[in-house]
């Protein structure tokens, strides 16, 4: 709400942006939701003595946990589909709406964040994008092998003809040869883009808003052009780590239920569940950020803690099964 202003980002747009990012919030909080949902669902079965009836039919606690796990797998698959085809596109559209509306309250009509790309010895920056998603403020630096600057191009704006061809407008082209500088001014100049075929508005988005398809495409592009891709590889592996963590929380709900099966209420269990869920979520976020900070292996960073929680949850389920 701090960004809301009368001449730009209105409160109705702020409400729309919040609604459009709700699917992303659902996906990110899925482990927490799974734990509380498991505690409530199994708690109701226990309160109504339905778990006792199920166990009298020969079902062990471990088998009950496996049934809950199967339901959890269906839930995580559904969340994966929501993440890929609903949450990611809606979040990107929401950020574009906010960016465009916020820019209306500023002195110019430029929106978005700086983009940059590399192709061999050529480095390109785009200051921002206009409302039509076209580049504004394009700078192209071309270096020799000895890292001396060979040429510099500045274009006021550009029009994207196709994935690879841009028409630069308002061009200043400087060249350095044998210690001499030459300047050429052009109305238009065709340039073979160094950017990936992804939409530039997509590239201006944070990596955690990308779908699996977008992440795969962009990581491949970064690796081909020799650019760092650790942030995006970690985001891709998080797409797998999050469902595993959700399954761990579903398994963890089973010991919560059988630890006090005759409890008259579930308030205390929910309170403990909230604490455990928050600590788990915070621990995972800390682990992911530490992995990015210290350039640790993306699979280990994203999957290590969720797999550890699955093993702990399975151990607790097995222990309660043996005790009862």
UniProtKB/TrEMBL annotation:
InterPro entries in the cross-refs: LptG, LptG/LptF_permease
GO biological process, one term: transmembrane transport
Cellular location(s): Cell membrane
Organism domain of life: Bacteria
Keywords: Cell membrane, Membrane, Transmembrane, Transmembrane helix
Entry membrane topology: Multi-pass membrane protein
A GO CC term assigned to this protein in UniProt: ATP-binding cassette (ABC) transporter complex
Keyword Cell membrane: yes
Record keyword Transmembrane helix present: yes
Pfam family, one: LptF_LptG
PANTHER family hit by this protein: LIPOPOLYSACCHARIDE EXPORT SYSTEM PERMEASE PROTEIN LPTG (PTHR33529:SF2), SLR0882 PROTEIN-RELATED (PTHR33529)
Function text: Part of the ABC transporter complex LptBFG involved in the translocation of lipopolysaccharide (LPS) from the inner membrane to the outer membrane.
Subunit note: Component of the lipopolysaccharide transport and assembly complex. The LptBFG transporter is composed of two ATP-binding proteins (LptB) and two transmembrane proteins (LptF and LptG).
Family statement: Belongs to the LptF/LptG family.
Protein name: LPS export ABC transporter permease LptG
Species classification: Bacteria, Pseudomonadati, Pseudomonadota, Gammaproteobacteria, Enterobacterales
């Amino acid at each position: 709400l701090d960004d809301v202003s009368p001449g730009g980002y209105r409160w109705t747009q702020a409400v729309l942006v919040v609604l459009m990012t709700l699917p992303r919030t659902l996906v990110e909080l899925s482990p927490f939701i799974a734990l509380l949902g498991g505690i409530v669902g199994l708690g109701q079965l226990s309160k109504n003595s339905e778990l006792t009836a199920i166990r009298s039919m020969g079902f062990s606690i471990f088998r009950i946990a496996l049934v809950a796990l199967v339901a959890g797998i269906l839930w995580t698959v559904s969340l994966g589909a929501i993440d890929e085809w609903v949450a990611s596109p809606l979040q990107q559209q929401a950020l574009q709406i906010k960016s465009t509306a916020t820019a209306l309250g500023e002195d110019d009509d430029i929106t978005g964040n700086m983009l940059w790309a590399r192709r061999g010895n050529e480095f390109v920056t785009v200051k921002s994008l206009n409302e039509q998603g076209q580049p504004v403020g394009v700078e192209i630096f071309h270096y020799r092998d000895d890292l001396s600057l060979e040429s510099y191009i500045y274009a006021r704006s550009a029009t994207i003809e196709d994935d690879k061809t841009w028409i630069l407008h308002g061009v200043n082209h400087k060249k350095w040869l044998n210690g001499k500088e030459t300047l050429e001014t052009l109305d238009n100049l065709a340039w073979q883009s160094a950017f990936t075929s992804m939409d530039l508005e997509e590239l201006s988005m944070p990596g955690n808003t990308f779908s699996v398809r977008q992440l795969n495409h962009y990581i491949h592009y970064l690796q081909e052009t020799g650019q760092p891709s650790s942030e995006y590889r970690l985001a891709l592996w998080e797409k797998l780590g999050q469902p595993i963590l959700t399954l761990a929380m579903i398994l963890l709900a089973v010991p919560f239920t059988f630890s006090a099966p005759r409890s008259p209420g579930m308030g205390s269990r929910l309170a403990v569940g909230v604490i455990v869920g928050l600590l788990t979520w915070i621990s995972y976020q800390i682990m992911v950020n530490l992995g990015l900070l210290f350039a640790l292996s993306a699979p280990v960073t994203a999957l290590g803690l969720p797999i550890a929680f699955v093993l702990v949850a399975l151990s607790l389920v097995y222990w309660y099964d043996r005790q009862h």
